[in-house]
Write a structure and sequence with these properties.
This protein is an alpha/beta fold. It has 2 domains: about 180 residues, 3-Layer(aba) Sandwich (D-Maltodextrin-Binding Protein, domain 2), CATH 3.40.190; about 90 residues, D-Maltodextrin-Binding Protein, domain 2, CATH 3.40.190. A 6-stranded mixed beta sheet has the order 2-1-3-10-4-11, with helices on both faces. Strands 7-6-8-5-9 form a 5-stranded mixed beta sheet, sandwiched between helices.
Length: about 300
């Protein structure tokens, strides 16, 4: 019986401390079924393993909550996701930015021309806005314009940008948050029916970060691999999904990611997860959103048409 108990205790210890013996773990937010996600990421992960001479395994999270909790606990060693998450890991988990996809991210708030009384972000207070589920970057940039949850738009949150535009076109919302590329893909006749009342600051595209289990030499090897067009033919499934014109990643510029993590203060449940992971059972303290211009470092990319609304 004692031997059995000892075996169980050792097994539990090993299951909790898998990172001691396990491969390096690569992950990304789940955006499809496991088979599709593995087909997208595993060729890249295998190339990364060869480049650093150490096994890297892709781990598929069952859902976004699972991903968020595991990511905040530091379970993943190498991660590919949005710039606000990437910077959060830099600030909180000692991750290092390696590379990011080319092309900046920008989001627009569009309104039908017929809505003559809605011309600024202030006019959207209490109005219905179609947007993607938080913590999607465009939705957080929308919320960043408002200081108090009582004086902000009512969000009609859906999964995916196609659904955002479908519900918006069906008249379910006064406005919609869309990626700039999505809006400009519409025909000229379609675009003529809308007005843009807000352009977000430009943000860097999705990035790959690595924690301290990946040595400085290995990080250099990964950057060399990920920025080499010939080597990155294996990343074609990633590029086709996220950046169709890309043939390689770019070396990440840390300056462009500064403060983007602060957008997560407006993500529903994010602070609660953080609080529980820190062992704090009380509600997380509210975080005042940073000023709009604090999200970017270069004056020429401050495209916001409005400042945070205060009441």
């Amino acid at each position: 019986m004692i031997k059995l108990h000892t075996f169980i205790i050792v097994a539990l210890f090993l299951s909790i401390n898998t990172n001691v013996l396990a491969d390096l773990i690569f992950s990304a937010p789940p955006r499809g079924n496991e088979a599709d996600e593995r087909a997208t990421y595993e060729p890249l992960v295998q190339a990364m393993s060869r480049a650093i001479g150490e096994k890297i395994s892709y781990e598929h999270p069952k859902n976004f909550l699972t991903y968020s909790v595991a990511m905040q606990k530091g379970h993943y060693d190498i991660v590919f996701d949005g710039p606000h998450f990437s910077q959060w890991r830099v600030e909180n988990l000692n991750h290092t930015l390696l590379v990011n996809l080319p092309e900046n991210l920008q989001f627009l708030v569009v309104v039908p021309l017929g809505r003559t009384k809605v011309n600024t972000m202030h006019d959207l207070v209490y109005e219905q806005v179609c947007a993607q589920l938080t913590p999607q970057l465009g939705t957080l940039m929308l919320l960043h314009n408002y200081d108090m949850s009582a004086t902000e738009p009512t969000l009609h949150l859906v999964q995916g940008e196609d659904k955002v535009f479908a519900d918006f076109s069906a008249g379910k919302c006064t406005a919609a948050v869309l990626r700039d590329k999505t809006f400009y893909k519409l025909s000229e006749a379609q675009r003529a029916g809308y007005k843009i009342i807000y352009k977000s600051p430009l943000a860097p595209n999705d990035a790959i970060t690595a924690n301290n289990k990946v040595s400085a030499q290995q990080r250099k090897a990964l950057i060399a691999l990920l920025t080499n067009p010939d080597s990155m033919k294996v990343a074609k499934p990633v590029f086709e999904r996220f950046s169709r014109n890309a043939v390689t990643f770019n070396v990440a510029d840390p300056v462009k990611f500064k403060r983007l993590d602060q957008l997560l203060s407006r993500a529903y449940g994010w602070d609660a997860i953080n609080s529980n992971l820190r062992g704090n059972t009380a509600a997380a303290d509210p975080v005042t959103p940073p000023s709009q211009t604090s999200l970017v470092s270069e004056p020429e990319i401050r495209h916001s048409s409005t400042k945070p609304i205060k009441h």
